[in-house]
Amino acid sequence: QFKFNVVVVIVVLQLYYALKSRIVGGHTAAPNSIRYLVSLKSTSGQHFCGGSLVHRYWVLTAAHCNIGAEQMMIVAGDYKVNIFEGTEQYAKPRILVIHPLYNRSTNNADIMLIKLRAPMVLNKYVSLAPLPRQGTGVAEGHVCRVSGWGYNSLEGGQVPVTLRTVTVPIVSTARCNSSDSFNGNITANMICAGYSTGGKDACKGDSGGPLVCDRRIYGVVSWGNGCGDAKFPGVYTAVSRFRRWIDQTIYGSYLLNTCPFLHALSAL
Ligand SMILES: *[C@@H]1O[C@H](CO)[C@@H](O)[C@H](O)[C@H]1NC(C)=O
Ligand SMILES: *[C@@H]1O[C@H](CO)[C@@H](O)[C@H](O)[C@H]1NC(C)=O
Ligand SMILES: *[C@@H]1O[C@H](CO)[C@@H](O)[C@H](O)[C@H]1NC(C)=O
User: Fold this and answer.
1) Is 210 helix (H, G, I), strand (E, B) or coil?
2) Residue nearest ligand 2's atom 3 by CA
3) How many separate helices (H) and strands (E) can be counted in the chain?
4) Same domain, yes or no, for 143 and 233?
5) End of a domain among 108, 128, 148?
6) Which residues of 34-70 are buried (b: 16+ CB within 10 A; e: fewer)?
7) Which residue among 128, 144, 172 closes a domain?
8) How far away, in angstroms, is 100 Cα from ligand 1 center?
9) 157 lies in a domain?
10) 39, 78, 110, 181: which is the annotated catalytic residue?
11) 78 part of a folded domain
12) Considering its fold, how many domains does the chain have in total?
């Protein structure tokens, strides 16, 4: 009897944390509808962050998702993260490129590129994410979409963890940075999104995943204060501030350094 009660309590707690810690206020995404989304897993198979495939060899994610290249596995074509569905592709990281301005105490420049040891194959389940141009913004109120698998350390791995998604409007930096909200902690490298009534948000474990506006990845899930809190929108790394860095990191390493003609072209 005692043992049974303990099991019931554990199952209830697991469900509670599972529901609490995933994308807040959203719904299940259609299978493989967000084909550039990847799951970052520990070598033991535990999902801990999201990411976006931006090149067959490269994943864009948050710098705070860095647990060390040796501890990581990247999975593309996933839908239920703890179940093998036959659509997954696995790759180990070759190098992690953390943005040089990343500051873990302020969360500034919370962006990282992961180069894979082997390229992902683009197919019905795996595609590349379109990025915004350098310096482009998204207007306040513009509705964007954030997606992810969430995460919780209590989860045993029995309950299928299905991809979830929710739409959230962009909040102006002025409001997000105001004394009513993040009180001066928002930098120009961050954008905020959420409803003034709260209830819809990304949450722990959605970190590193994409905020998509007009089909482009304008944000990377970065930080916040709780999840779905009316006073505190979700804070995302502003990808358009880093487009040049992304291109230089991905293409600079192969082309620009070895080919002076392309280097001259890229400067135009
Ligand atoms: C991070 O930011 C804080 C606050 O601005 C600053 O004091 C600290 O030196 C920075 N750390 C690094 C590694 O840049
Ligand atoms: C802003 O940052 C300061 C210093 O890191 C911290 O003490 C404060 O709680 C933060 N405020 C909010 C609303 O995030
Ligand atoms: C947010 O407020 C702080 C403190 O007033 C300020 O230093 C910072 O530049 C503001 N951020 C933006 C993006 O304007």
Assistant:
1) strand
2) 185
3) 4, 14
4) yes
5) 128
6) bbbbbbbbeeeebbbbbbbbbbebbbbbbbbbbeeee
7) 128
8) 12
9) yes
10) 110
11) yes
12) 2
pLDDT in tens, 115-166: 999 999 999 999 999 999 999 999 999 999 999 998 543 444 445 689 999 9
229 domain residue, yes or no: yes
With a 6 A CB cut-off, is 107 part of the ligand 3 pocket? no
**Placement of tokens 């040089």 in the chain:** 100
Q: Does 267 fall in a domain?
A: no
Residues 118 and 135 grouped into a single domain: no
Burial of 146 (0-12, 13-18, 19+ CB in 10 A): buried
Tokens standing for 59?
């994943």
pLDDT in tens, 28-42: 899 989 999 999 999
Task: Decide: residue 90, CB within 10 A, 0-12 exposed, 13-18 middle, 19+ buried.
Answer: middle
User: What CATH number is attached to the domain comprising 101?
Assistant: 2.40.10.10
CA 179, CA 246: separation in Å to the nearest integer?
33
Which residue has the least CA distance to atom 11 on ligand 3?
A: 187
Quick check: CB of 188 below 6 Å from ligand 3?
yes
Residue 83 tokens read as 């179940």
Same-domain pairing of 115 and 78:
yes
Cα separation, 162 vs 23, in Å, equals: 11
CA pair distance 81, 155, nearest whole angstrom = 12
Contact 235, 222 (CB under 8 A): yes
For residue 169, is pLDDT > 50? Answer: yes
Domain residue limits at 185: 23-29+129-240
If asked whether residues 140 and 185 sit together in one domain, one would say: yes
Expressed in angstroms and rounded, the spacing between residue 227 Cα and the centre of ligand 1 is 25
Cross-strand pairs, 61? 112
Hey, is 164 helix, strand or coil?
A: strand
Whole-model pTM? 0.86
pLDDT top residue among 12 and 110 = 110
